[in-house]
UniProtKB/TrEMBL annotation:
Cellular compartments annotated: Cell membrane
Annotated keywords: Amino-acid transport, Cell membrane, Membrane, Transmembrane, Transmembrane helix, Transport
Residue span(s) of domain ABC transmembrane type-1: 70-265
CDD domains assigned to the protein according to its UniProt record, in alphabetical order: TM_PBP2
Name of this protein: Amino acid ABC transporter permease
Pfam family for this entry, one: BPD_transp_1
C-alpha cells in the first residue's frame, strides 16, 4: 500500500538545537574577536604609553609605594574590618533579640549606614565628630578615624550577613545544646556562632575586598605624608610629574591584594557548595 503525503510525518527543516547553540557561540566569539581587533587597531598606543607607562616615573615610586602606601592601605583595611566585624556581631545579635527596642535600634542602624555613601561617613567622622565633641580625640589618630569610619560602614553589611548565617544553622542545634544543659548565651557562643561563621566566611572575605578599595576615602580625613594610602600616594605623584603612570602603578598594587583575595573567596564558595552536596 503506497503512503500518501498526509501519512508521512513532515521532516523538520533547518538546524538542530545543538547546531543552533554552536552557531550562537561561534557568533559571540567572532564578535568578541572583532571588538578586540577594533580596539587594538584604533587605540593610540604611543600616547597611552606616554601617559600611563613611563618606567622612569614608576621607578621613583619604589620602595615607598610598597613600604608606605600599600602598608597603610592594608593596615586601614584590617583595622576597619576588625571594628566592623565586632560591631556587626553585636548588631546582628540585637536584630535577633527578643527585646523589641534592640531590634528596632539595630534595624535603624542597618538602614542608615547601608544607605549612606561611605564618603559621607568619612566626612562625618572627620568633621562632625570634632565639632560635636570639642577637644575629643579618637584613639589612634588618623588610623583610628579610618578604622572607625570603615567599621561603621562595614558593620551594617556584616550584621545582615552574620544574622543570615545564624538563622541558617538548623534550629535543632540550639535544641540539642539546651538539652545538654547549655544556657542560651553559651549555646549561641559555643555552638551556633562557630557554625554560622563557617557558612558566612566567603561573603565576609568579599566584604574585606570591598573595604580594601573603600580605604581610598582616607584622603577626606586629611592625612600626612606618612599616612598616605595607595590612591593618595599615586595622585600626589601624578600631580608632581604631570603623568598618570603613578595611578596605574597604584592600581596594580591594589590588584596584588584583591586578586588573591578574590581567588580565596571563590575557593571557599566552591568548598561550601561541595559540603552542601
Amino acid at each position: 500500500m503506497s503512503e500518501t503525503k498526509s501519512d508521512v510525518a513532515p521532516r523538520r527543516k533547518g538546524l538542530t538545537r545543538r547546531q543552533r547553540r554552536s552557531l550562537s557561540r561561534g557568533i559571540q566569539y567572532a564578535a568578541f574577536v572583532a571588538l578586540v581587533i577594533l580596539f587594538a587597531v584604533s587605540a593610540d598606543w604611543g600616547r597611552l604609553q606616554n601617559q600611563f607607562a613611563q618606567p622612569g616615573i614608576a621607578d621613583r615610586m619604589f620602595p615607598d609605594v610598597i613600604t608606605l602606601a600599600l602598608k597603610n592601605t592594608v593596615l586601614y583595611t584590617v583595622t576597619g574590618f576588625g571594628v566592623g566585624l565586632a560591631l556587626g556581631m553585636v548588631i546582628a545579635l540585637m536584630r535577633l533579640s527578643s527585646v523589641g527596642p534592640y531590634r528596632w535600634l539595630a534595624g535603624i542602624y542597618i538602614e542608615i549606614f547601608r544607605g549612606l555613601p561611605a564618603l559621607l561617613i568619612f566626612i562625618f567622622i572627620g568633621v562632625a565628630v570634632p565639632l560635636a565633641f570639642p577637644g575629643t580625640e579618637i584613639i589612634g589618630g588618623t588610623y583610628g578615624k579610618v578604622a572607625l569610619a570603615l567599621g561603621l560602614v562595614a558593620a551594617a553589611y556584616m550584621a545582615e550577613t552574620i544574622r543570615a548565617g545564624i538563622q541558617a544553622v538548623p534550629k535543632g542545634q540550639m535544641e540539642a545544646a539546651r538539652s545538654l544543659g547549655f544556657s542560651p548565651a553559651r549555646a549561641m557562643v559555643s555552638i551556633i556562632i562557630p557554625q554560622a561563621f563557617r557558612i558566612i566566611l566567603p561573603p565576609l572575605t568579599n566584604e574585606l575586598v570591598l573595604l580594601f578599595k573603600d580605604s581610598s576615602l582616607v584622603l577626606f580625613l586629611g592625612v600626612t605624608l606618612e599616612e598616605r594610602e595607595l590612591s593618595k600616594f599615586g595622585r600626589d605623584l601624578a600631580s608632581q610629574t604631570a603623568n598618570s603612570t603613578p595611578i596605574l602603578v597604584a592600581g596594580l598594587c591594589y590588584l596584588l591584594i584583591t586578586i588573591p583575595l578574590g581567588f580565596v573567596v571563590r575557593r571557599m564558595e566552591a568548598k561550601a557548595q561541595e559540603a552542601v552536596r
